[in-house]
Structure prediction request, 124 residues.
Amino acid sequence: MLEVVLRYGERDWPALAEWQRELPDWFVLASGPEQSEQEDHEWLVWWKSLPPDQQNEIEDRQPWALSEWLEWLRPSERTWYWLGAEQASTTLLKVWLDTPGSPAPVGALEWLLKAAGAIEVVEE
Prediction:
């Protein structure tokens, strides 16, 4: 699936409607609802009112809106490079990234893995 996204550059980055046609249905359906700026603001105010442990729990369970996910995968925003993956066992997938200037924001990749069925994503 990343192949679809990574073949586009900043200049030919599709609009959301085109992405919805190009990406697999299972991923589009797993994504969270698109929200207005007002809805985003209200959610953020609510989220900031929670204790840090609850904030982390909510973030881990919250599906990303497709537009938000795509924004973090734009070439100008993505600060990691896919090096490869290996199925280490029937329940473990190892993924290698190059992250110059680490730490890198990899939340969009983590969301993709979770939407694809990952139960847990661990960085080493």
User: Anything to note?
Assistant: Residues 15 and 117 are 26 Å apart (CA to CA). DSSP finds seven helices and two strands in the chain. Residues 2-115 form one domain.
